[in-house]
Amino acid sequence: MLILLKKSIFFILGLISIILGTVGIFLPLLPTTPFLLFSLFCFGKSSKRFHNFILENKIFGKYIRDYHEKKGITLKNKINVLLILSISISFSIYKVNQIHLRIFLIVVFLGVTYHILSLKTLKENKEN
Length: 128
What we know:
Strand content: under 5%
Radius of gyration: 17 Å
Oligomer: single chain
Shape: globular
Strand order of the largest sheet: 1-2
Number of domains: 2
Number of helices: 6
């Protein structure tokens, strides 16, 4: 009974996290990758089917596998992430009038940029 409850809690946390990660694709303040990695962890404890769904997903599966297993991302993905981050944060800074929110967005931008640039750069795998 306790194992079933534990699996259910991990499953629910995984679902919430994957929803937040998906929303994070469109909102610059929600980090997509950490939520997807947390979903991967939760589903690893609760549902092999959903765990495999994340790892084999056509859109972000390879990216998550690279980040999770190899602790890095390809140069192409670094450029794409930084480009999307720059555009979305710049748009948010433009739309926000409060200086403290603009400063916060700049700090988020600098932190995420530093994190992405500090990751190991993986070579492109031509097979995938």
